[in-house]
User: What shape does this take?
Amino acid sequence: MAQDLFEAARAAMTRSHSPYSHFPVGAAIRSADGRVFSGANIENAAFPEGLCAEAVAVAAMVMAGQTRIAEVAVLAEKKALCPPCGGCRQKLAEFAGPEARVWLCDADGPKTAMRMAELLPAAFLSTDL
Ligand code: THU
Assistant: This one.
């Protein structure tokens, strides 16, 4: 994985609004055309209204006109390797093929790559509708 994706996720994490969990997360997505979109978790006093970092990055990508994910990087300040939550796996799978890599990163860089199909086996996708 190119370092730029990790650096985008790490930079995004500094924008985290997480005064309730105190668990900052950053995510970055490289779209199929090579552009990078990032997001941080944005929490809310009404707790269920919070947004995950991956969801914010997906939204940024889609609003820029991109709908194919090439690879993803995720990191959390307080956890060495932060696996995307279940809801985020579904959000990523909407735009990422089964072979797309999701890089779990620590503070120094990418450590482990997981395939989208490993993260969300038997995914419910548009082809199921
Ligand atoms: N969080 C993410 O941003 N992404 C994940 O995949 C896991 C969880 C956020 C949500 C909440 O703001 C905080 O981490 C603690 O759950």
About this structure: The chain has a mean pLDDT of 97. Residues 18, 21, 23, 25, 41, 43, 50, 52-54, 84-85, 88 surround tetrahydrodeoxyuridine (CB under 6 Å). Helices lie at 3-13, 53-63, 86-93, 116-119. The longest strand covers residues 96-106.
